[in-house]
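Reviewers of the previous submission asked for a worked example of the structure-prediction workflow described in the proposal, so we include one complete record here. The input consisted solely of the amino acid sequence. No template or homolog information was supplied to the procedure at any stage.
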Amino acid sequence: MKYLLLLVATVILISCGATVNYDYDTQTDFSGYKSYNFYPNISSNLSELDNARVIKSTDSILQLRGFVKSETPDILINFFASEFITQSSTTIGFGVGGGGHNGGVGVSGGVPVGGNEINQQLTFDFIGEKADKLIWKAEGNDVLKVKANSAQKDAYYFSLISKMLSGYPPKKK
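From that input alone, the workflow returned the following structure tokens.
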């Protein structure tokens, strides 16, 4: 019974949060890529504050993993986002019903709880500087509350980008 509860809890945790997809050039030897920088004119569709959050989080994660930010990088990083606003899918339901032997009437409904959310897809393109070609790509999808404060946005971007960069460099098969 203990193992069953652990399995259920693990499945629930894995199913929550960001989803990430990767693609990469299978002919590329990623072991030679040790330095990076960002394209100078990134058009990300994010605010300047969110651009700074993405750059800060990416710098922090890559540097912890041994990569060096350089003016003559091996990799140039481009990122962009697409987003749309939806109502929270969390609702509180209520209902009224009645019935007899051979009939019944029921009315139910739901009230949205939690406010609007931003559904965001963040895409990273890693371009090999020497070959000037796309070598690795990650797309991450997650949800952020519209009224998130600065600290919540910092945590959101750090968490999403950590998941995205966990697939770089790709593992050899």
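The beta strands are 19-24, 35-38, 68-69, 75-87, 91-99, 104-112, 116-128, 133-145. We consider this example representative of the routine output the project will generate in years two and three.
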